[in-house]
Design goal:
The chain is mainly beta and 275 residues long. The chain has one helix spanning 2-14, and strands spanning 41-45, 53-58, 62-64, 67-78, 81-93, 101-104, 107-111, 115-118, 139-142, 151-156, 166-175, 184-186, 200-202, 207-212, 220-229, 233-247, 252-261, 264-273. Strands 1, 2, 3, 4, 5 and 8 form a 6-stranded mixed β-sheet that branches. A 6-stranded antiparallel β-sheet has the order 13-14-15-16-17-18, with no helix packed on it.
Length: 275
């Protein structure tokens, strides 16, 4: 069963055997081409990550900002758990493949080797920041909702605001069916559907802080806190918004702070700030 599902995943993602991938509304329009084994790179991580063995089938397509990106299928194995996740924006540093990939005008035009063994380096998130000195790993395991269970974050290179990396979030304990079917639930609800590398985790206060870059005087911070709901129990909920605003009439910028409860905003402070 697992082999059959992986085969269909390959067909859907790479358009193999003459099959074309159905266009997604949130993907840029591209010309569909038939894939062959010579298009596909296989990556094996030689260390376990969060207890999982991880293997990747990757079709590197282009190079940008020092990284090579393309669609991939990631397979995670752990004891009796075995599942796959697809990612159209899987990315790794160019320097790891410079000697074996030929890059012409930003496109991968030739591949000399197809099998690689890599070591996964755990990112240092002790400061609660995803924007780290090294390239963002292609996937991470992080406890986002302070329940001592790590979620799986799949990195989508360059798909966030202002071309930063974004994340798809998977709740690993939220199985919707038989594990044999590799069926997992992606976390698309707020705030996880807005995850990118500018999010900060405040573990002390149990908060996720989402930064929005809106230009001069228009930046924002949405703060989600671990709170108790009478109907849903403990969950992350929006509790504060800090919003920049410019008053063109007086030529000043202001910082407005709102408290949020049950979706209702209340202004609690407003102060002038430097532009």
């Amino acid at each position: 069963m697992k082999k059959t599902i992986l085969t269909f995943a390959l067909l859907a993602l790479f358009g193999m055997s003459g099959c074309q991938k159905e266009k997604s509304t949130d993907e840029p329009e591209t010309t569909q081409t038939q894939s062959t084994d010579k298009d596909l790179v296989r990556i094996n991580y030689d260390n376990k990550i969060n207890g999982y063995e991880v293997n990747v089938i990757w079709k590197p397509k282009n190079e940008r900002y020092g990284n090579i990106s393309g669609p991939a299928i990631l397979e995670f194995k752990k004891e009796d758990v075995d599942f796959t996740v697809t990612n159209n924006y899987f990315s790794l540093p160019t320097e790891a493949f410079e000697s074996v990939f030929t890059i012409t005008d930003g496109l991968i035009t030739d591949i000399k080797e197809y099998n690689f063994t890599l070591s996964y380096i755990e990112p240092d998130l002790s400061e609660g920041k995803f924007e780290i000195d090294n390239p963002t790993p292609p996937f991470l395991f992080v406890d986002l909702n302070f329940d001592d269970k790590k979620e799986l974050l799949i990195t989508k290179a360059g798909q966030g605001q202002r071309d930063i990396d974004a994340f798809d979030v998977y709740a690993l304990d939220d199985y919707m069916g038989d594990l044999e079917l590799n069926y997992m639930q992606i976390t698309k609800e707020e705030p996880y559907n807005e995850m990118d590398t500018w999010v900060t985790i405040n573990r002390k206060n149990k908060e996720l802080i989402f930064y929005g870059s809106g230009g001069v005087c228009n930046n924002s911070w949405h703060i989600y806190s671990w709170t108790y709901d009478d109907y849903e129990g403990y969950k992350l909920a929006l509790t504060k918004i800090i919003q920049g605003e410019r008053d063109d009439d007086v030529g000043k910028c202001y910082e407005l702070t709102y408290s949020v409860r049950n979706g209702v905003k209340r202004l609690i402070s407003k102060k002038a700030i430097d532009q």
